[in-house]
């Protein structure tokens, strides 16, 4: 269950976050601030989901087959 | 005839020949693919799944939306990322059910999960409507490419017909399975083209993308963020939610989940796929560069921005190459969508209602006959025009997301939703969507006590909330008494 909560983090960054990041300046790495925010969160999401994948017990089974919930 | 259009037609012919070869050696090609899949699994599955996400929409549509709406275009990056997060949890469940029940199509999934052929039919009809939006978008893209590459010698209307003819020929020749190699070539080609254009064009006109953004901010302050009204923050949030939840509900995406070999590969894909969506960043660069360099495109003309800028910058032979890459990004997904729609019409709608005892062979023949029929319907709506490529896909997503509650709940060990609940929920969502869209009514018009900021909530989300409410209420009323009792009792697995 805590894994599912962890995967809510990207939603916080990309759905709630833009409320606070909705501006053009300062440009970050040449990108408008909001676009840089979204791009940063693409990377953070991948990192978070990589952690979820590592921690998810369903991925440790050798045959890749999951038990029914 | 100029060089550009010749190159584009040669590409179309080459794609047809590849499709023909794939059909003749189908057993071998597929076998080859599955063996390759076993040795370097994740990479090929990644390319194939990515290929279904990145279509004319991401090439011409995303650049056009950046050109026309500015910062609102970033929603595409956000939703593609979150769609994979949602997919991580949804896909293995759908895949497991499909494997267990030997499912072949999305309506089939609903029929089995809810034991209701009527629900299957409803899902098939709604799915067809949504697919039609997706299909019109590809046809529109094909038309734009042919028209611009001919430098005006082929009119936009004729271009759409030419695009439709190429598409019918491609689907007829390459058969239901399609050519995997066309998909691989298309993805490689479009990736190279997009990264090149995204870096070269801002450099050529401004000396770099940073300077380009600074120039756009100076010319149109605030355009690169979300506006206060219209496509503002509330629109952005609700649209990202609807699109990220709806992404895997598309009938053709659903079927590709069925064909996967192993749940873990899908999870791994869900983790890395968002990196691929960063390709959109370069498409945005092109759209924003076009903003000040080919100014004045209005309404659905914004979809022309990428190709107009290309035609203004490069020699015809190079425009031909870029157009050829664009042609493949419309052709390959277009054929997948067209095949899915034709098959659903023949198998789930016709066999499901009119002739239950129809053989697989006759369904196949009927599906082939449906290909030109669906294409003609698509051409009709494409020529009516008026909506941008992104506008079309947003509409499709609003329809398709209505399947989410029924799908997500059915994956639980004990499904709290009844077949009546699922049916009424989807129906209510779709009817509300059509009514709200046609009348232009917003959430705030219906409930005046809500804050005015909610005026810009995506209509799909309003319909989805209504859908959820109806699903819950009808399920509560129609749930058999003994099921309620057993749901309350402690459960020990399944």
Secondary structure layout:
The complex is a heterodimer of chains A (about 70) and B (about 500).
Chain A: H1 2-6, H2 9-16, H3 18-21, H4 33-55
Helix pairs in contact in A: 2-4
Chain B: H1 3-24, H2 26-53, H3 56-69, H4 75-101, H5 106-114, H6 117-149, H7 156-174, H8 180-206, H9 209-219, H10 233-246, H11 251-258, H12 263-277, H13 279-293, H14 305-313, H15 316-354, H16 360-384, H17 389-400, H18 404-410, H19 419-439, H20 443-446, H21 459-478, H22 481-488
Helix pairs in contact in B: 1-7, 1-15, 2-8, 2-12, 3-6, 3-13, 4-10, 4-12, 5-6, 6-7, 6-15, 6-16, 6-17, 6-19, 7-15, 7-16, 8-9, 8-13, 8-15, 9-13, 10-17, 13-14, 15-16, 17-21, 19-21
Report on the architecture of this protein.
The complex is a heterodimer of chains A (69) and B (494). With 69 residues, chain A is mostly helical. Chain A has helices spanning 2-6, 9-16, 18-21, 33-55. Chain A has one domain (2-57). Chain A contains 4 helices and no strands. The longest helix of chain A is centred in the middle third of the chain and has 23 residues, at 33-55. The mean pLDDT of chain A is 82. Chain B is mainly α and 494 residues long. Chain B is built from 22 helices and no strands. In chain B, helix 1 packs parallel to helix 7 (156-174), helix 6 (117-149) runs antiparallel to helix 15 (316-354) and helix 6 (117-149) packs parallel to helix 19. The termini of chain B are far apart. The model of chain B is unreliable at 25-40 and 484-494 (pLDDT under 50). The A-B interface holds A 4, 7, 10-11, 14-16, 18-19, 22-25, 27, 29-35, 38-39, 41-42, 45-46, 49-50, 52-53, 56, 58-59, 64-66, 68-69 and B 71, 74, 77-78, 81-82, 84-85, 88-89, 92, 96, 208-211, 213-214, 217, 221-226, 233, 236-237, 240-241, 262-265, 267-268, 270-272, 274-275, 277-278, 281, 284, 412-413, 493-494.
